[in-house]
């Protein structure tokens, strides 16, 4: 291969190291999101909260595997590995663009559905269902649906979980200033959706550049072998 082909080869290798890090970061982000909602994900009407984090983890794993083919193809100058890498990279690029577009188009609808999830959890917060609000209040440091008044105004005892624990007493000086869980849960998803949207755009641009370099490298490898 000529000098330019060697430059493309090592640039592609560096790009795939970046993809390895991106894959790991997506897996970590998805795991954190699953962990944050996992305390009440077994509640039947809240199961949809797991969909986005699981998709993020799956996407991270796919990117990690594809980056492996990219690294092998670049370092070993393998047309087979580079071809597999290019095909998979194109598929992931298209899927990621679709996910980002969906996030932009359906953001409000998704956040509204998260509001309904918390409302359902609040309405079904009883012994039969295992008091799912406790897990929500501890995880997101919130109290009640819209605030502690949701308990006090209805003659209900404010649970210890409004103070972030189930073991100690919960004085009013702690819980009365805490925000409602509907707002905190919505803000959590709003922040993470924004991260996914804009990070997805950045990663998609890098993927497109890497795909272009992979095609150039394949062409260069084939030409060099035909000229031998």
Question: How does this model look, in words?
Answer:
The chain is mainly alpha-helical. It has helices at residues 3-37, 51-76, 79-123, 132-140, 149-152, 172-175, 181-226. Helix 1 (3-37) packs antiparallel against helix 2, helix 1 (3-37) runs antiparallel to helix 7 (181-226) and helix 3 (79-123) runs antiparallel to helix 7. The protein is elongated and about 85 Å long. The mean pLDDT is 81.
The biggest sheet, with number of strands, parallel, antiparallel or mixed sense and barrel status, is: none
How many strand segments? 0
Choose one word for the global shape: elongated
**End-to-end span in angstroms?**
11 Å
Which class do the helix and strand fractions yield? mainly alpha
**Helix-strand string:** HHHHHHH
Radius of gyration: 24 Å
Average pLDDT confidence is 81
Residue share in helix: over 70%
Poorly predicted tracts of residues: none
Annotation field: number of helices: 7
Share of residues in strands: under 5%
Topology:
Elements: H1 3-37, H2 51-76, H3 79-123, H4 132-140, H5 149-152, H6 172-175, H7 181-226
Helix pairs in contact: 1-2, 1-7, 2-3, 3-7
Features:
elongated; mainly alpha
Short note summarizing the structure:
With 228 residues, the protein is mainly alpha-helical.
């Amino acid at each position: 291969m000529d000098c330019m082909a060697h430059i493309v080869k090592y640039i592609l290798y560096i790009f795939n190291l970046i993809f390895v890090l991106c894959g790991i970061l997506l897996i970590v982000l998805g795991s954190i999101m699953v962990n944050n909602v996992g305390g009440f994900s077994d509640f039947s009407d809240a199961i949809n909260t797991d969909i986005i984090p699981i998709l993020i983890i799956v996407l991270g794993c796919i990117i990690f595997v594809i980056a492996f083919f990219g690294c092998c193809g670049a370092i070993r100058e393998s047309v087979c590995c580079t071809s597999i890498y290019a095909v998979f990279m194109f598929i992931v690029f298209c899927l990621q663009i679709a996910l980002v577009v969906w996030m932009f188009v359906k953001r409000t609808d998704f956040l509204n559905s998260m509001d309904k999830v918390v409302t359902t959890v609040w309405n079904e917060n009883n012994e039969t269902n295992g008091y799912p609000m406790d897990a929500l209040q501890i995880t997101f440091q919130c109290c009640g649906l819209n605030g502690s008044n949701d308990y006090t105004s209805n003659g209900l005892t404010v649970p210890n979980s409004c103070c972030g624990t189930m073991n100690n007493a919960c004085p009013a000086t702690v819980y009365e200033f805490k925000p409602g869980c509907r707002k905190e849960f919505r803000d959590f998803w709003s922040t993470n959706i924004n991260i996914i949207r804009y990070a997805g755009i950045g990663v998609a641009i890098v993927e497109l550049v890497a795909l272009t370099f992979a095609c150039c490298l394949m062409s260069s490898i084939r030409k060099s072998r035909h000229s031998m």
